[in-house]
Amino acid sequence: GENVEQHPSTLSVQEGDSAVIKCTYSDSASNYFPWYKQELGKGPQLIIDIRSNVGEKKDQRIAVTLNKTAKHFSLHITETQPEDSAVYFCAASPNPPTNFGNEKLTFGTGTRLTIIP
Amino acid sequence: SQTIHQWPATLVQPVGSPLSLECTVEGTSNPNLYWYRQAAGRGLQLLFYSVGIGQISSEVPQNLSASRPQDRQFILSSKKLLLSDSGFYLCASTGRLSFTDTQYFGPGTRLTVL
Questions:
Q1: Looking at chain A from residue 10 to 49, which residues have their Cβ under 8 Å from any Cβ of chain B?
Q2: Mutate to test the interface with B, among A100, A107, A113 (most CBs of B within 10 A)
Q3: By CA distance, what is B32's nearest residue in A?
Q4: What is d(CA B101, CA A35) in angstroms, rounded to the nearest whole number?
Q5: CA-to-CA separations, A90 to A105, B30, B45, B49, B72, in angstroms, rounded
Q6: Per-residue pLDDT tens digits for B60-69
Q7: pLDDT of amino acid A66
């Protein structure tokens, strides 16, 4: 089955600086890669996702890059703010969400990001 | 968009007692539904998923069971709780209204078994 590794497990960044979280996956059939942000005591919230036909996707201060050859993808947060402090999870799935399929995500172990004011 | 409700929000139960956690989904029909468990400071472990009423797949052997009595209702149960069942339980849903639907999570239930 799929195995997703995520690094680092903890990351402290000065406010205003950039943060980068990296994930690698093992199953070459994976083609959907979401990122979730989880604040303390809450459920994970999807912040951005990317599919295998795209190498990079950006949404304001958040960007995700994908290298299918190397089987790794990364989350980039620029101009970090205190509210970016949370645990971030990457995930991979061989099935993009469809009307017919059952997509199961394999999650990384999470990165605790702390923004230092 | 989807809204996922879970209750209770927190629960403290003695070892050996039964458990019932409920999840309901609004804003979609015929979703795939999932139960995850998250131990303190750890990642997400998929416990069960369901592609339709009465259809349950278990990912890991354990003390828990799941049922889906209605299209948008997913229940996690146990007859006798163990200490190791403590954790943060998350329900998730994948809608089927469009090809761009993705997996959304509920607010979670924090279970403490004493």
A1: 34, 36, 41-46, 49
A2: A107
A3: A102
A4: 14
A5: 10, 26, 13, 20, 26
A6: 877 899 999 9
A7: 96
